[in-house]
Amino acid sequence: MSQLHEPPRRQFFPFGNPFRMRSPKGSNLPSKLVDILNAFERSLAERLQKLHPSGEDDVLSLSWMILAMELLCETHSDVKNLIKELDLPVPDWNEKLIDVYLDISVKLLDVCNALSSELSHLNQSNLMLRCVIHNLDSADSERLARARTSLKEWRQNITTTSSRIKSCCVILDSLVESLDLPKIKNSAKGKVLMQALYGVKVQTVFVCSVFASAFLSSPKLFDLDIANTYLWGQTFSSLQNDVNSEIRSIYARGKFTPLKELEAIDQCVGKLQQMIPEKPEVEEAQLLKNSISELGGKTEKLSKDLHSLTKEVDNFFQIVLAGRDALLSNLRGC
Questions:
Q1: At CA 99, angle to CA 97 and CA 104, rounded to 5?
Q2: C-alpha of 230 from chain center
Q3: How far apart are CA 267 and CA 72, in angstroms?
Q4: Which of 16, 93, 154, 254 has the highest Cβ tally under 10 A?
């Protein structure tokens, strides 16, 4: 794989975070609202801390991605609970709040569809490998030859970037550009909700950008400048720095794929390709047993991990959709 050249990093909010003066300490919010907001932000900080990689092998692995999506679902569920705690009926929502919530939700649904599409592509590619393994298990020279061709096709298929994941990147750009949420006047509860939505948006952009980076031929990362006045700000900045640095390092090394599990499978595939001659003989099938077994184990694990990750993405989609549907239903009843 040729050396990839990443475009210059974009530093958002170059003149400081527009939310720096919105922390509870300086907002003169009632103590009850401060407690609600602080509880939400502490939970967010704890989730971000759980995502901090213990080593370089944690980044861009399916296990990390599964955990990241689980925690993102928890945060979005927390927002629903926060709205209930605020006792802020939809008829009392400022129009800006409604527009922001609806805009974010529809974009997140589109992101989910893009990620689901890419996971489906990976599942199909994995199914192709399992068929290859079946052919390799056969002591038949023709099937061995077909398997050799299929291994080459797998490598070509797995590196194909879909248009949907590219559209996901455009959506992420728009979410980052709109991080500067509108100010809410004359509504202390509205201010709390808006600040909570800011935290949700930051976590969502970060997680989804890592996902996009796993499926692209170049990293899709943001360097968000987050104020330490947020209870989760310092934790997020540390997490973002470590994860982004490792992803950029992975791409700089020019690996076949940045996703750890796929990289491991590709190494097995490459080994098998070298072992199978263009015109294989039946006897050569016996020499492949160990490599076939290794590839089979890795594809089986990949299948289970992809299933778990797909389930979490679907769960995220349902959480976002349920919140959006509830808001629209309440608006129709106003």
A1: 95
A2: 23
A3: 32
A4: 93
Query: Among candidates 46, 39, 54, 37, which has minimal Cα distance to 71?
Result: 46
Look at residue 5 and tell me whether its pLDDT is greater than 60: no
pLDDT band at 288 (very low <50, low <70, confident <90, very high): confident
The encoded tokens of residue 271 equal 């080994």
> Tens of pLDDT along 186-201?
788 888 988 999 999 9
- Reported as type and span, the H/E element at residue 105 is helix 95-136
Q: Are 259 and 50 in contact (CB under 8 A)?
A: no
Query: Tokens 């201010």 — which residue?
Result: 191
322 CA to centre of own chain: 20
Polymer length in residues for the chain? 334
Report whether pLDDT(9) > 60: no
Which amino acid is present at 153?
A: E
SS3 of residue 21 by DSSP: helix
The SS3 call for residue 227 is coil
- pLDDT value of residue 253: 86
Question: In 3D, which of 292, 299, 297, 218 has the Cα closest to residue 262?
Answer: 299
Phi, psi for 11 (deg, rounded to 5): -100, 110
User: DSSP letter at 223?
Assistant: B
Token digits of residue 139: 């002591």
Q: Which amino acid is at 249?
A: S
3-state DSSP assignment of residue 89: coil
How many alpha carbons lie under 13 Å from residue 268 in its C-beta half-sphere? 22
DSSP string, 141-163: HHHHHHHHHHHHHHHHHHTPPPH
Helix, strand or coil, per DSSP, at residue 30: coil
Domain ranges of the chain: 28-47+54-328
Of residues 266 and 2, more confidently modeled: 266
Q: What digits encode the pLDDT tens for the residues 42-81?
A: 999 999 999 998 877 788 899 999 999 999 999 999 998 8
Who wins on pLDDT, 31 or 282? 31
**pLDDT, tens digit, 9 for 90 and up, residues 74-128:** 999 999 889 888 887 777 677 877 888 888 999 999 999 999 999 999 999 999 8
Cα(100)–Cα(84) distance, integer angstroms: 18
